[in-house]
Write a structure and sequence with these properties.
Blueprint lengths: L1 H16 L2 H4 L2 H14 L5 H10 L8 H4 L49 H6 L7
Length: 128
């Protein structure tokens, strides 16, 4: 059961963090591994991945097949579409705002409800 959950979480991670066109290249990886396995019976999957991914870009006889493997070439196919529409409304701003209005203070926040004894506590110390 733990193996099922581990594989499920791995698949979920791969499918959400990998671009779809790279996932579509997985059959190329399998078939290319099988070709290498036919040439060398001692070829393990780890050794195959090390040859193709850990040692940089190797120029060998099957380079065209190597470049069809996932994450071997940059296949960034993205496009951006920007649509601009002419404005349909015209706005007028009027400067009728008076920023120097005097506002009455709310009596709730006046200091008259506090005792002077408590105000003296919060004064900074005086050097005398």
């Amino acid at each position: 059961m733990r193996k099922f959950f581990a594989l499920s979480f791995l698949a979920l991670y791969v499918f959400t963090s990998t671009e779809f066109h790279e996932i579509m290249k997985l059959p190329n990886l399998v078939s290319h591994y099988n070709e290498h396995k036919e040439e060398n019976k001692d070829m393990s999957l780890w050794k195959f991945l090390c040859i193709h991914y850990a040692h940089g870009d190797v120029m060998d006889g099957d380079r065209d097949k190597d470049m069809k493997l996932p994450y071997k070439s940059i296949d960034c196919h993205s496009s951006t579409l920007v649509v601009t529409l002419p404005p349909t409304h015209q706005f007028e701003f009027q400067n009728n705002v008076n920023f120097h209005e005097e506002k009455e203070q709310n009596s709730y926040y006046k200091n008259s409800s506090y005792s002077d004894n408590f105000i003296s506590i919060w004064q900074p110390p005086k050097i005398g």
